[in-house]
Amino acid sequence: MLTLERRPSPSRMWTMLTPPLAVVLTMVAGAVLFAFLGKNPVEAIRTIFWDPVFGEFAFYYRGQLLVKAAPLILIAIGLSLGFRAGIWNIGAEGQYIVGAICGAAVGLAFYPTENSLVFPLMILAGAIGGWAWAMIPAALKVLFGTNEILVSLMLVYVAEAMLASASSGLLRNPDGMGFPGSRNFKDFPAAHNDYLIESAGIHWGVVAALIAVIFAYILLSRHLLGFQIRVTGQSPRAARFAGVNPSRLILFCLGTSGALAGLAGLFEVTGPAGQISIDFNSGYGFTAIIVAFLGRLHPIGILLAGLLMALTYIGGEAAQSTLGLPASAVQVLQGMLLFFLLAVDVLTNFRIRLGKTEAA
Amino acid sequence: MDLSSINPLVLLASIMVASTPILLAAIGEMVVEKSGVLNLGVEGMMITGAVCGFVIATETGSPAVGFIAAAIGGAILALLFGFLTQYLLSNQVATGLALTLFGLGLSALIGQSYVGIKAPVTSNLHIPLLADIPVIGRILFQHDMMVYVSIAIVAAVWAVLKFTRAGLILRAVGESHDAAHALGYKVVRIRMLAIMFGGACAGLGGAYVSLIRVPQWTEGMTAGAGWIALAIVVFASWRPWRVLLGAYLFGGVTVLQLNLQAAEVPVPVALLSMSPYLITILVLVIMSINRGRAALGAPAALGRVFHASH
């Protein structure tokens, strides 16, 4: 019989190796799934994971990679801070939506200005919107000890109702013949998050994501606050002795992740999505949870994980059009990835011993 | 605005139907949490139950078989969660989230060719004598079978936890897994059974949405009901009859909100449709203010990883 023996400290080797291992296992399980769906498994896996980067039309897909990865990385960086300290913000989708609504509303209020200051102002509004939305669970947790998991999640549904109302009411395009959806930011140059380098898919959101990665890296490795986050995650009791103020940490972690999610929402709505519409949000807030874990809650890891997850989106779309693979198959693939990661993670913290049976 | 269009009798009668999915999911999750495990994957198990129940019921034409399939589907998904958290000792919060994300994707995949089909009709019972009582008969005794099954499950859970040895062991495992282990109880096995029970209940709750409440299949149709079930367990301080109360209160709010929308009350539709979620938050806040009382109900080992080192 197999028994588990706790390692004195997590294995460094397995910390690095488990994400690639989980990816390989997901590919194998994904291939089995695609075979069940009646598709050629090898072709499907190649279309999703290989062709977008190295295939014939890679020049088109490569640009899309950063476009999809940027919001995921931006959100996941914020989430990882809280996850490390045991503060579970799982309502990033809501903060993403509210950030987009606030930012877009500020921009649309100045329509049709040509003043280039409007875009920085929108960025600020987006970040504040997301921050404020995350402050609700944070404040409730600090004041009353309310469970932040459930509150932040409930607020996603509230934000979705707000989005529905904004796109068909307050922010509806006055020249849109009554159709729901705001003005398109492509027709509003001063407020449009245009590509800086179109072929590489780089827009301001990508720049922001890279800055977030660098700042998170410095915060976690060099700054006292980063140390406090790490200690709290590993041992809340030790953290109290080290003088960590838990309330401050909750406000910081939830606030930062909210602001980053809000930014991601703003860059998406003014760029790739183009307008506030009832379904402009595409679940990035939830997928980012997978990205954060797959990246081992480490900034560089999240950068790589975000790119990989973007690959599954793009490859999934390609497989949808060329192989007729259902869109939800990619969602299953992403869910499986997180499962496999959590499963193989046992190798990081435990040694597996053969033969020793359970003592009575 | 036309408040007279709301028939109070119909409103009250529909509360039980609206509450049953959450009640089923919440009572299952309560048992899981009583055993010391926090499974945040209720939403994923519900939606999987919803699609399994719908697919099997339309294929066989029998809602009853559909419900059984839904319970099995939910339990299998829960088994996955149990294997990861109990044998591979993964983080329960992260694994529960994974279960929800996976369940939402899987259900969309399974259900894609069943969108827009109507489910076979489940007939309402007409309990002799009781159903003929004016007013009360209409509100309480003219529903489908599952409404009464859900109440029976609550009663059974209450009785088992309160009066039986099995219930005592389950609670012991949830309060202190180390002590239970030292007494020779198989902590992991007991927790696995609780987790599977929770999955089966969540599956039934999901199938109730797709087979009776709506009755159709659409992607993500449980719309947060699983998360609300988690909140109701907290609201109920881990007590079975209070789970029933919480679920019915919540069902009442949902039904009232839908009726007010239909009656075109001068309140924004967005505000009405977000009201169930806002009220859930409000309830969570109120429960956490009375912290002393709520904390008494929470199983002491809730969410902690159990690893028998010797």
Strand order of the largest sheet of chain A: 1-2
Instruction: Note the beta-strand portion of chain A.
Output: under 5%
Shape of chain B: globular
- Classify the oligomer: heterodimer
> Which fold name corresponds to the CATH topology of chain A?
ABC transporter involved in vitamin B12 uptake, BtuC
**Largest interface, C-beta within 8 A:** A-B, 50 and 49 residues
Q: What report would you give on this structure?
A:
The complex is a heterodimer of chains A (360) and B (310). Chain A is mainly α. Helix content of chain A is 69%, strand content 3%. In chain A, α5 crosses α11 (246-270). Chain A is globular. Chain B is built from 13 helices and no strands. The longest helix of chain B is centred in the N-terminal third of the chain and has 27 residues, at 8-34. Chain B is globular. The mean pLDDT of chain B is 88. The interface between A and B is large, with 50 and 49 residues.
Can you tag this structure with a few keywords?
heterodimer; A: 360 residues; mainly alpha; ABC transporter involved in vitamin B12 uptake, BtuC; two-stranded antiparallel ribbon; 15 helices; 2 strands; B: 310 residues; 13 helices
What's this, in brief?
With 360 residues, chain A is mainly alpha-helical. Chain A has helices spanning 12-36, 41-49, 51-54, 58-84, 92-109, 118-144, 148-168, 204-222, 224-234, 236-241, 246-270, 284-294, 299-323, 327-344, 346-349, and strands at residues 2-6, 350-354.
